[in-house]
Amino acid sequence: MQTRKKYIFLTFLASWLLLFFFGGDQLRRFAPFSGRKAEARRNWPRWTDRSLLKSFAEPEELQRDEDPSLLSPRERRAAWLSAYSSSSCRMETCFDFSRCEKHGFKVFTYPQERGQPVSETYGKILSSIERSRYHTLDPEEACLFILSIDTLDRDHLSGRYVRNVDEKIRGFPLWNGGRNHLIFNLYSGTWPSYTGELGFDIGQAILAKASFSTDSFRPGFDISIPLFSKDHPQRGGDKGWLFQDSVPPKKKYLLVFKGKRYLTGIGSGTRNALHHIHNGKDIISLTTCKHGKDWEKHKDTRCDKDNVDYERFDYQELLHNSTFCIVPRGRRLGSFRFLEALQAACIPVLLSDGWELPFAEAIDWGRAAVVGSERLLLQQQTQFLWDAYFSSVDKIVHTTLEIIKDRLSPPRSRSRFLWNTLPGGLLVLPDFSTHLGDFPFYYLQHGYSPSKKFTAFIRAASQAGSLSQPILRLIQAVSGSQYCAQIVVLWSCEKAPPPSGKWPQSTVPLTIIQGRRKLSERFFPFEAIQTDAVLSLDEDTSLSTSEVDFAFSVWRSFPERIVGFPTQSHFWDPEQGRWGYTSKWTNELSIILTAAAFYHRYYHSLFTEYLPAGLRELVDGLAACEDILMNVLVAAVTKLPPIKVSQRKQHKEAAAQQAECGEGAAGTPLPGAPSPSAPHGARVKGTAGSRRFSQRQDCLNQLADWFGYMPLVSSQLRLDPVLFKDQVSILRKKYPSLEKA
Amino acid sequence: IMCASAKYNTRGPALIPRMKTKHRIYYITLFSIVLLGLIATGMFQFWPHSIESSSDWTVEKRSIHDVPVVKLPADSPIPERGDLSCRMHTCFDVYRCGFNPKNKIKVYIYSLKKYVDEYGTLVSNTISREYNELLTAISDSEFYTDDVNRACLFVPSIDVLNQNALRIKETAQALAQLSRWDRGTNHLLFNMLPGGPPDYNTALDVPRDRALLAGGGFSTWTYRQGYDVSIPVYSPLSGEVDLPERGPGPRRYFILSSQMALHPEYRLELEALQAENGESVLILDKCTNLSDGVPAVRKRCYKNQVFDYPQVLQESTFCIVLRGARLGQAVLSDVLQAGCVPVIIADSYILPFSEVLDWKRASVVIPEEKMPEMYSILQSIPQRQIEEMQRQARWFWEAYFRSMKAIALATLQIINDRIYPYAAISYEEWNDPPAVKWSSVNNPLFLPLIPPQSQGFTAVVLTYDRVESLFRVITEVSKVPSLSKLLVVWNNQNKNPPEDSLWPKIRVPLKVVRTAENKLSNRFFPYDEIETEAVLAIDDDIIMLTSDELQFGYEVWREFPDRLVGYPGRLHLWDHEMNKWKYESEWTNEVSMVLTGAAFYHKYFNYLYTYKMPGDIKNWVDAHMNCEDIAMNFLVANVTGKSVIKVTPRKKFKCPECTAIDGLSLDQTHMVERSECINKFASVFGTMPLKVVEHRADPVLYKDDFPEKLKSFPNIGSL
């Protein structure tokens, strides 16, 4: 018994030792159990001699790869020109930059030829270009040329197909092989292959085309545009359908599609597959076989049932009530479904391989078009994109032009961030600045804050050669503000401004600019204005220092809006079928008079550079409309109402209406009504007053017409100091003087 | 242990005969230990995957000299040249990637071989240091798989980083004989120096059929957008030289050129630039008279002055990166490392990782034709922007250039983003430096919308047992025109809510929700019953708000739907003596919070409060039965970056503090507790998100000399 035990014991020990010899490796590795996992997966060996490995290239080789025998840059460019033309055009080989240097980015449209009618859609495109601030009538100063030949529909089976384009364009003296030309196209190719074939040689022209395939797309040169219908509005455009951010985006349907199913031919594969996902509940996918004349010939077993289902659902209802929308390719790569889905805040799910997405050079479609975890964000992004770039022909065309303009000078171009963030690339002028912190829109996203000082900008137009009392008092009050960095006076009078000795001595620097007596000039981006905030004033405005201080503290919370004192409002007059305007005391406001308002200095640039000259001329021709235009512009950019802050009772001096210099050079009209009891919408007494009033009303309607919609937004609130008129000791209040009657 | 067992082994037999009871226990224990050890060792030894890992354990010890040699017959197949029209949907087999719950592609690496031609001559260097680092990085990453059947992407171990170091035809043959080559489908090649004399192609010349190419130095003509990946040319100096980050601010030179081999034509243009602008432009060249032993690559000269490279790059604001024979230049990496803003002059060059990186934020691209205007173009860039570009340049280097690992992982991530676009990394994550990520906010309700008035709001009343007061609140709130539903959250588990018949009869639906636990966070739960966007949170004792005041509050909320819009306002202050935050409920000129005893907010914040509240704040609030409102204020301010809106004048509120003020010393403890909350939350959020403002919202005509009957909200501010 004991001997047996002894042997067992010995055997155990022996095998234990043996195991140690052969399995020791593992044991050593398992000792630190934590390191085990990482090592088990490791496959690429840690070479014992890895430190001896040579670098992939000697430092010498990396730092001097130049071969002296190499072509000089000039020769290389010349070689490129011949090698990479037409089908592999790039800006540097097929575009003549020198044409754009002298006069900047100017676009010339060929004059319409008689007997050569263009389609309604092409007419819209041409008129969008003519409305743009880049349009020129002089081909000599043009950088970009647009044909007058309608090239939108290049399906030669279509009635709109224009024949012999090749011949025609060769006859144009400016054609020059297509250099610096931009050609628009919506439909190309025809049954059965629907290729990108245009039926004429575009040569070195830039092609802006819908349904662009990545195969024929010349990156950085061509532009993919969305397919839009002939009913697409010229300007303004319908709003997106998202009125509220419902969370979760609880909609009736998760995913919808309604459209044709091609029984044969190109694109049928994609759409044929769609019926599989239809479940009749939250996923609705409806197809019809009815298209073309002879659909019944090809019809299959599903057609009849599908056609019945198809009629049961209303397309608009589906769009409104779905979170995702399928956007499959049609015969061509792009389909109308794309824009429809964007507008409806229905997140597009794209089934179109090889489609170069519209404006992909600028727009980050990953933020709007792909299934993501944050549906709410995606929905909002669809709406932003729709409104910024797609809702009208104007926007589509202008986006195309801006993308080309950005290529001309890369250092002065918009970053991808700008294109994809509110308010969108069209409203951000890289000529103003390329730094995000200089714009009023990006403070929060980038952790900047608006400048802590403001510039008081006073427009003086009084006839008197000497300085009036109100302006002296105004300079006094404004310069008393601790936030005032400088005062700039725009002297808008024929007479020369008083010599510097006559101006009041103040602690802040005072600059006088001799104006040219145009109303729109008060919003010119003067170099002298150095701060983000501008306090715009008329010479007869009366403000106290604490009003200014408080308003500035409010502006710093809302740097993208107009923050000011006297207000007016607009309303829809159903009887006259036009917009009405009132300066009466009302419970709402939508316009802040720029006689006393804070806003961001960027709006001066936007006013002068972004708006077409025609609008500024309109304003200059009227007595008092420039401030309405400014309000309309800011509202169009922000989609938000301005902000009114509390003011003391009397805003302007009783004798505010003093003689002004020159006809039509008047500043803003009398703010506020003299009699508060006058009911809403009452007529202003007096002929001068009523003329001005009707001019302002006309102006408002003309602006709404130009923008294509009424951008102004109404607000029902006013911002007061926290303890305003509260029953606490006046000593505790920071702005006690605001409460004085 | 081994020694110990050996010792017993020798002494054991002698001890056994004298074994006693206590020794027996001792031996049994010893036996069982030995037995256990045996079983354990055996398990380790014969466990299936341990065999596998044991093999790579031995592999690890291998030397590169030992890798197997593969002989390529002269007539072995050569892949097609490479198809310029390849795109992901035509040349890539996404089905190999399948559905993957982690949304990560699986990458397989072929094992290393040495390739020789028929005559036994090497086809290329077996592997370079950088390619080994790159493969190591991939194999250490979560993309890696060692299972060739589950792989979605294949990386050959054939090193093609430098085209000049390999034989083109034979390398192509080596690729073609890879076990899963299949015309190169789903294969990824890394190349940094493409082309060779005299024409220097901008993409790797090795025929590669459908393989993806991660290449340095693509031009727009060779780059297949959305298919290839443009990568940097790695600069080995990154690993050798440590350049500490330099803060923003003026530097000695404005423009600097450090490249040694520039085409004479370029050099002439640069020298003209220097002649025109003097001292602020420095054009360096190679040094001609260096003493022996000084590495020429680390020195640059201007006339007789010698500068250290790359240190000299830190002395300049802008650094020129000119194309050479190739478009991609390693100097770009050095320039970024130095925090110098690269001025890239290389027409048609596809910048590294341009698919995801926004180079306009970190560099200036100037067309070759515009070189003479360079100075004025650079001068027009605002100083603030230059500083940001410097930071951004350094960040790009740190994140995507500094090592082969960074380059490899960024490349794989880009491909991963294409295959799982819904899980793609956002623009901000790719581009924002950590400091910006911290200080910036991305408002989830960013679209400027004024919700339609018609939708109305849902009032949510949190109550415990004050039924009488609750009923009064319900009656009062029901008078508000825009109220669309009333939800009572019954937080008392011991008592049933009153019978249906006892509740006040109101014109809108009234729902009672019973909760499982008496928790304060129940007030912010995203109940399905809340169908409107606007929620009015109201306590069961807030009876002093007039219908006008509530309706006006709702109108204000519509204009600020992403903010908390409330009635009693509060303030946080920094207590300089105690060096911490303090809660203030006095009559102050500023507000930074509103109490949720009566406040409008967007229903989305209910989701955020319930599911996305950072740290342990939610539990902390429930445990302390306090500060849920402060937590909500923190949450909203943090996610939107905006202040609260206080509406209407101050009135006497029956609220915790107010009762406390009436009731003597309660006040003190309450304030201390609230202050504690602020400090706690600020530490959890890592910042103080609350914004202080000096304004409140009143109706346009509030207190104006105007007939009350014509005002929309006349009854405001009555005490």
TrEMBL record, chain B:
One GO biological-process annotation of the entry reads: heparan sulfate proteoglycan biosynthetic process
* Family affiliation: Belongs to the glycosyltransferase 47 family.
Cell compartment(s), UniProt: Endoplasmic reticulum membrane; Golgi apparatus, cis-Golgi network membrane
Q: How does it assemble?
A: Part of the heparan sulfate polymerase, a dimeric complex composed of EXT1 and EXT2. Could also form homooligomeric complexes. Interacts with NDST1. Interacts with GALNT5.
Instruction: Relate the protein's function as given in its record.
Output: Glycosyltransferase forming with EXT1 the heterodimeric heparan sulfate polymerase which catalyzes the elongation of the heparan sulfate glycan backbone. Glycan backbone extension consists in the alternating transfer of (1->4)-beta-D-GlcA and (1->4)-alpha-D-GlcNAc residues from their respective UDP-sugar donors.
Gene Ontology CC annotations of this record: endoplasmic reticulum membrane; Golgi apparatus
Q: How does it sit in the membrane?
A: Single-pass type II membrane protein
Identify which top EC class this enzyme belongs to.
transferase
Superkingdom of this protein's organism: Eukaryota
Query: What are the alphabetically sorted keywords of the record?
Result: Disulfide bond, Endoplasmic reticulum, Glycoprotein, Glycosyltransferase, Golgi apparatus, Manganese, Membrane, Metal-binding, Signal-anchor, Transferase, Transmembrane, Transmembrane helix
List, separated by semicolons, the cofactors it needs. Mn(2+)
**Substrates-to-products reaction catalysed:** 3-O-{[(1->4)-beta-D-GlcA-(1->4)-alpha-D-GlcNAc](n)-(1->4)-beta-D-GlcA-(1->3)-beta-D-Gal-(1->3)-beta-D-Gal-(1->4)-beta-D-Xyl}-L-seryl-[protein] + UDP-N-acetyl-alpha-D-glucosamine = 3-O-{alpha-D-GlcNAc-[(1->4)-beta-D-GlcA-(1->4)-alpha-D-GlcNAc](n)-(1->4)-beta-D-GlcA-(1->3)-beta-D-Gal-(1->3)-beta-D-Gal-(1->4)-beta-D-Xyl}-L-seryl-[protein] + UDP + H(+)
Per its UniProt record, what InterPro entries does this chain match? Answer: Exostosin, Exostosin_GT47, GT64_dom, Nucleotide-diphossugar_trans
> What PANTHER family does the entry give?
ACETYLGLUCOSAMINYLTRANSFERASE (PTHR48261), EXOSTOSIN GLYCOSYLTRANSFERASE 2 (PTHR48261:SF5)
Instruction: Give the protein's recorded name.
Output: Exostosin-2
- State a single Gene Ontology molecular function: metal ion binding
Q: Transmembrane region positions? A: 25-47
Domain Exostosin GT47, chain residue ranges per copy = 102-381
Q: What is the E.C. number?
A: 2.4.1.224
Q: Which residues form the Glycosyl transferase domain?
A: 457-702
Pathway where it operates: Protein modification; protein glycosylation
